[in-house]
Amino acid sequence: MRKLIYGAFNALAAGEIARFEQASDNPREAQLERLQDILSRARATAFGKDHGLASAHTYEDFRRSVPIREYDGFRPFIDRIVAGEQNILTAEDPFMLATTSGTTGSQKFIPITPSYMREFGKASTTSCHHLLRHFPRVPEGCSLTVFSPAEEGRTPGGLPFGAISGGLYMREKWAMKRFIAPIPYEVFQIKDYEVRYYCLLRAALSLPISTFYTLNPSTIALLSRRLQQYGGDLARDIYDGTVRAPGEVPAAARQSLKRFMRPQKEKARALASLAEQDQCVPYKVWPELQVICCWTKAAAAFYIADFPEFFGSTPVCDITYGASEGRGTVFLGPDKQALALRTHFYEFVPEDEIGSAKPTTLLADELSVGSNYYILFTTSGGLYRYHINDVVKVTGFHNRTPLIEFQYKGGNIFSFTGEKITELQVTEAMARTLAELSLKLRFFTVIPEFRPAPHYRLWVEPLPGGESLIESIKEQLSAVYDRQLGASNIEYRAKRESLRLEQIVVETIAPGSYEAYRKALVASGVPDSQIKLSHLNPKPETRAHFEALLDKHLPAPSALRSLGVS
Fold first, then answer.
1. Bridge-partner residues for 109, per DSSP?
2. How far apart, in whole angstroms, are the C-alpha atoms of residue 367 and residue 378?
3. 262 in a domain, yes or no?
């Protein structure tokens, strides 16, 4: 059945592949056509009226009428959608709001319309076609796809909000969900993450898995470690036709797993043998495995370094660049992603101009190989010239269309697994923490650490004489700050709950270090008014300085004198 489905897909995809290839020869024309299509359906909306889109007939008109905005610039419009108003950003009503983290403490809601989903679908069709062309044995098995629930709650206006990954899954055809990505949706609704991962593996071990297809490599690494941890227990369940998870399995999830419960004694014996040898790793458990598709760039590269342990020589391909706010690329082959011309309308700002009052904006045909750009999205979901704060690099061209790769989040943002922590969030979380604990600090900064497991370290400098107080409440400070950071950033909270991030670790900087460093900077010629020591992932030289002054090796007076401070 799977091969029949994939065969039918390739036949149906032929038209979209031809249209993409034609567009790639003339990206400017294709992009301006996309823009006019989006604008034609937005002119009578509240946003369209506010920005005079009825008179925006060219790209130049559009650029003059609509300023570049980050999410907060759209928040007043989205707040109206949340309240239940219609015809605000799009004439077409959104059917859900995708949730993601913002640059402030407030949650971001991204409107998702049927047209927006069709835009996503075009990119997915092109990407899947090329994936199958490069890995023709993928149809021999299923896809282990991990996503989050499409509905986490409802707005006052009645719109469901949740993960776009779940929303995409829910709109797939029945045959795709049954035979290509058959892990039941109910499994991903399990709140207890240990139980969820166990049940996911229990279902997957009953299937031939040819593809791991999920955004976060951290999730894949975590599942691989849980496979090692629970291998013996899973073997017994497969032998007996049961599911005995390390916690209660909700009734709906248990019911959905029944079709995976047929005892498979031979498979159970093979898994038990691997578990006894401490060899319960995916590439040995699923010999059909052909490819791993996930994020591979920026912080994700850390996890990829560990993949040979789990996957041997199985190829790892970048899953393409995108976010809830928009899809940026299509997969053409390993390490080859082209701008998704037929999906959204894109503009690019040279990286060094993003802070300018009037930055240069370029279209797809105006980019240069090797250069970095901030990417702007205009979509049929209601985002116009949206500044997502992502930096991409042009690596080449497919016909005349740029090949691009995600590089990093712009500004002072850090992300291990998609949490996108900002300096504002860590600062606001600290303010609430200090208020809750009736505590005062001289200085703090948050440092991302990959080892021994991904987590954030909180470096704090107490007031003079306050070292013993900090030492006595380190665990409490860690717990409170961890909770407050989760309150500022929902994705951080989700990653903590799902065990992809460990708890905050608190370390103490010797009293006087901050002031000594400021004095040393001034003595070196840095104007006092320009000294801004970051509260998140500071510059390497700043980080190296404070690393030497942590509580595990407090400085002698000479250490401060070496900075030129008496």
1. 99
2. 18
3. no
